[in-house]
Write a structure and sequence with these properties.
A hairpin with a 2-residue loop joins strand 2 (about 60) and strand 3. The chain has one domain: Mannitol-specific EII, Chain A (3-Layer(aba) Sandwich), CATH 3.40.930.10. It contains 6 helices and 6 strands; from the N terminus they run H-E-H-H-E-E-E-E-E-H-H-H. The chain starts with a helix and ends in a 12-residue tail after the last helix. Helix content is about 40%, strand content about 20%.
Length: about 160
């Protein structure tokens, strides 16, 4: 598996999400990925992630959500990060508002990479001081730096890379 540092590029960080509800957060991420040239069809991304959310919220608690989905028309994994200063009701398991979001989008035929990356993101966000630091970070560079530093603490799992 590739490190979060290799996947989370500067243009895929939303320092201050404006959305106030779950679908708005997903739309904001879809617009970001479309503008960055990462996905061709923002509406399809929205549909896939909303459909996944209908199975059960990806709000895992402690102010964190990891919305995710698989798309047939992408060739590489995409990771984006967003922070909501006001918090969003994402129907989290603990009922609390979500402030920290990782969006994960993978090719349809990469279930192993998808699960490994979800587990990795979940692992780094178990660190309570990191979550607090992410909520209070001054800018997107600091957000990325905090995530990269935490991710670097864990060994990389090797997987076959796509061409």
């Amino acid at each position: 598996m590739t490190s979060i540092k290799d996947l989370l590029h500067e243009d895929l960080v939303i320092e201050d999400l404006k959305a106030t509800d779950k679908k708005g957060v997903i739309r904001e991420f879809a617009a970001l990925l479309s503008a960055a040239g990462k996905v061709r069809d923002a509406d399809e991304l929205i549909r896939v992630v909303v459909e996944r959310e209908s199975l059960g919220s990806t709000g895992i608690g402690d102010g964190v959500a990891i919305p995710h989905g698989k798309l047939p028309f992408i060739h590489e994994m995409i990771v984006a990060f967003g922070r909501s200063r006001q918090g969003v009701d994402f129907q989290s398991m603990d009922g609390k508002p979500v402030h920290l979001f990782f969006l994960l989008v993978t090719p349809e035929d990469s279930p192993g990479d998808h699960l490994r990356t979800l587990a990795r993101i979940s692992r780094i966000l178990k660190n309570s001081p990191l979550r607090e630091n992410l909520k209070n970070a001054a800018d997107r560079q600091m957000l990325r730096s905090l995530i990269y530093d935490e991710d670097a603490k864990y060994p990389q799992v090797q997987a076959l890379q796509r061409k």
